[in-house]
Each structure stands twice: as C-alpha cells, then as structure tokens.
Amino acid sequence: MPFISLGLAPALAQAAAELGFTAPTPIQTEAVPAVLAGRDLLATAQTGSGKTAAYALPLLQRLAQAEPLTPRRVRALVIVPTRELAAQAGEVVRSLALHLPTKPKVAVVFGGVSINPQMMALRGGADVVVATPGRLLDLVEHNALRLSGVELLVLDEADRLLDLGFADELSRVLALLPARRQNLFFSATFPPDVQALASLLLHEPTRIDVPAVATEEAVILQQAYRVDTNRRTELLRKLIKTQGWQRVLVFVATQYLAERVATKLHQGDLYATSFHGGLSQGARKQALAEFKEKRWDVVVTTDLAARGIDISQLPVVVNYDLPRSAVDYVHRIGRTGRAGASGLAVSFVTPASEAHWRLIEKRQGLSLPLEVLPGFEPKEEAPPPSPGDGGIKGKRMSKKDKLRAAAAAAAANKPD
Ligand code: AMP
Hints:
By secondary structure, this protein is of the alpha/beta class. The chain folds into 2 domains: 3-211 and 400-413, Rossmann fold (3-Layer(aba) Sandwich); 216-371, Rossmann fold, CATH 3.40.50. It is built from 15 helices and 14 strands. The protein has a 7-stranded parallel β-sheet with strand order 3-4-2-5-6-1-7, with helices on both faces. Strands 10-11-9-12-13-8-14 form a 7-stranded parallel β-sheet, sandwiched between helices. α5 links the parallel β3 (106-109) and β4 (126-131). The protein binds adenosine monophosphate (AMP). Adenosine monophosphate is lined by residues 20-21, 24-25, 28, 47-53.
C-alpha cells in the first residue's frame, strides 16, 4: 500500500520515498490515518518499527494547514529522552518536510551544549520543537519559547523518559500546555507509571500494538551507552537499580575483570557473581545452576558464557567490554531474547572503544544512537588513531587486525 493511500500529501509521500520508504510499516499504516483524523494515539512501539515517521508524517501534514508563526510560539512539541534521539527525530522531521510548499521551521533542543544558539533559533517561534525535557524547561525559563500555543504533543519513548527520571520535568512541561491539543504517546513498554502518565494525557486514544520484529523471531532491543572506561561499573550499577533489571549477564574482556566487577557490584548491594574459565568445573556448574534458580541478579562473565548455555528468558545482556568481533556480538546478545521472549542487549562504548564499536555496527548493519545517561557524560579523550589506521598503501591493517588491536587496547585499559 503506498503512503498516499493513507491520506498523506504527495509532497510527504515523495520525501518518504526519497528516504527509501517504499511502503508504510505496520505502525505507520495504523497511526497515520488516526493522527490525520485528529485522534489521540497510544502506541506500543520500539525503535526499528518506523515510529518516528509514524508521527512525523501526519504531524507535518496537520501543520501544513499553515498558520503564520508568532514570536516564541511552538505549534508541535516532540519530547524525547536523550539528545541522540532528539537529533535523530529532528533529522527525520526535516527530511520528510523537504518538499512541502511551505517548509515548517523545525528546532531541535537538548542539554549539554550552549543554550544561546537554541534561543536564537527559537526567536520567531517554531512549527516543530523536538526537545529533551530539561533543556525545554530551561528555554521556557529564559523566555525563549511559549508552550501555550501547542496544538500537538508527541511523547516518544515515554518509558525511557520516566526511567531516566524525567517525571518531574514532564509534569512541569504538561502544566504549561493548553488543555485542547492532540496527544501522541509512544512507549516500548507499559509498566504502571507509564500507564498512569498515558491515562492522564490521552483522550479516547486509538491503540496501536505493533511488535518491532516478526513475532516468531526473538525481539532483542539493542542499546549503546557512551561512558568513560573507569565509570562503567558505576553506570552498570545505576542502570540495574534504576531500570529494575533482574538477571543480568555482563560480559567483560578478562577473568580478572569478571572477578573485580562482580566483587564491586556485590559490595554495592547487588547479588553478583563471576563465571569464567578460571573457575573449577564444579564452581562453574554451581554458579550457573544458582543463576538459573534466580539466586543471583548479576553474573559477570567472559566470552565463555556467550555460546551454548541456554538460560531461558534471560532478560538483559550487557557488553561491559565490547566483544572482539561482530560474530561474538551476535553470540553474546543471543543470550537474551530466546524462544520468542523479548530481551535487552546493552553495550558500553568508551572513547577508546568507539572506533571498534563502529566496526561492529557496520558488520551488523546496525546504527544505534550512542546514548549518554545524565551524570555519565564522558570526559576521557579518545586515543589517537593507531599507526595502521592511515591510508598508506600496503600498510593498512585488515579489519580483523583492527578489531584485534581495538580489543587489546580496550582490555589494556585500567579496570575500575
Ligand atoms: P524508527 O523506529 O523510527 O527509529 O525507525 C527505524 C528505521 O526504519 C529508520 O532507519 C527509518 O529510516 C526506517 N524506516 C522508517 N519507516 C520506514 C519505511 N516505511 N520503510 C522502510 N524503512 C523505514
């Protein structure tokens, strides 16, 4: 079914086609007509489902029934949890708007960068603002924008907004919005706090539940966090505590690190143990059996545990150290999401391992936003490129050598 039959303007369908979107994804097929009809939306959607275009396309069409911009007014507000997602969503909105006769003004605002250029960009008002909650409130306080004219609100990844501790900021933003508006609510999961937020916001919403991947396949949500080498244990502990992860398998590069990280987590109030080839067969068997019986929350392991063992329904796998190769990545993340159960695979990417991560991503055909948990902004400097990275003919390292060198560099980094 072509985009145009969903009721979209030819200019929007053309822009979608130019992005390589030949046919709408299931979430787009359901969301577009409902949003165009002015309905509120409650959608279960994950990254990869095409959810961004599912709200961006009808949002742009609704705004195309143009009204002149007035200073500081915002017509559509998209709230997202991270700066990476803000940049990504802003890009999708801009690309889809490319052929509209009156191009909407799109502003993307997030923290961690200077506020002044964002204030300048908002001066004459904006049709669409894509924002993280904290910076949005800063801009309101600086009188750089008004939210009382918002016609359409999108909450993207509502569960992560709450996980990341934005509940207060969100309620302050919501208090500034006009009562009459259209609300689009997207979340990958619906724990009670997300449900409560949805019922507060939405008026007789159209419900859409679209799995990200074909149901017979395992659904593995993949995420990557940027973090300094010496803060990985702290980040891990924080994520386990704040996201309520239970039964986490953590991969590290060496047996020494497996012991060390498990000990640190244990000291930090988590039931954590190690599992690696340096343990006796008996100790390994026992650790595994206890993990299966759910006596441990966290098992820290080397690649020993990446293959073969089937711990059913293991919910979370963490690459504390990145795997040596893309093949190892597949084996590691395959520990979760087994037998059709959904799983989460999280990779920690340090400044020193970023180049290696890019290679894994490329091999995997992945393109994940590199997220930063507030308070864990990386400060380490990336190492200079290794001599073999240059373009000298005959002296270039093979991809395999690059992966090995990066893994060796990562393993050589001081553990925390
Ligand atoms: P999202 O779920 O919005 O993060 O989108 C996931 C990926 O799917 C992005 O790379 C989009 O460019 C792509 N995408 C979105 N809609 C379509 C479509 N209709 N056809 C093909 N790819 C799409």
